[in-house]
Design brief:
The chain is an alpha/beta fold. Helix content is about 35%, strand content about 35%. Strands 1, 2, 3 and 4 form a 4-stranded mixed sheet that branches. The longest helix has about 40 residues. The chain starts with a strand and ends with a helix. Belongs to the ERGIC family.
Length: about 110
C-alpha cells in the first residue's frame, strides 16, 4: 500500500522588471506499508493520494540593495572578525601567562 500526502502552496514571483510569475510550491510525504494476510497488518492494497491546498499565497519580490547596505554588511563582517580575533588573543594571552607563572613557580609538570 502506498500513501502520498501532497501539499500545494500558490506562489507568486515578482521580478525587478515587474513581470509576475504565478506558480505553485509542492511538498510530498510518502508512506509505504506491506499488506498481506500473513502479517497482522491489514489494509487495502493500492496507491492513495491526499491533497491539501493551502489557503495562503506566498509572494516573493526581487529588490535591489543599495551600496549603503553592502557597506554595512562589509563593516559587520570586519567587526565580527575583529571581535573573534580579540577573544582568541585574550584567551591565548591569559593561558600562556598562567603557564608562564607556573613555570616560574616550578609547578609545571
Amino acid at each position: 500500500m502506498f500513501q502520498y500526502y501532497l501539499k500545494i502552496v500558490p506562489t507568486m514571483y515578482v521580478r525587478l522588471d515587474n513581470t509576475v510569475l504565478h506558480t505553485n510550491q509542492f511538498s510530498v510525504t510518502r508512506h509505504q506499508k506491506s499488506v498481506s494476510n500473513v502479517n497482522t497488518e491489514s489494509g487495502m492494497p493500492g496507491a492513495f493520494f491526499s491533497y491539501e491546498l493551502s489557503p495562503l499565497m506566498v509572494k516573493y519580490t526581487e529588490k535591489e540593495r543599495s551600496i549603503g547596505h553592502f557597506a554595512t554588511n562589509i563593516c559587520a563582517i570586519v567587526g565580527g572578525v575583529f571581535t573573534v580575533a580579540g577573544i582568541f588573543d585574550t584567551l591565548l594571552y591569559h593561558s600562556l601567562n598562567a603557564f608562564h607563572n607556573k613555570v616560574v613557580l616550578g609547578k609545571a609538570g
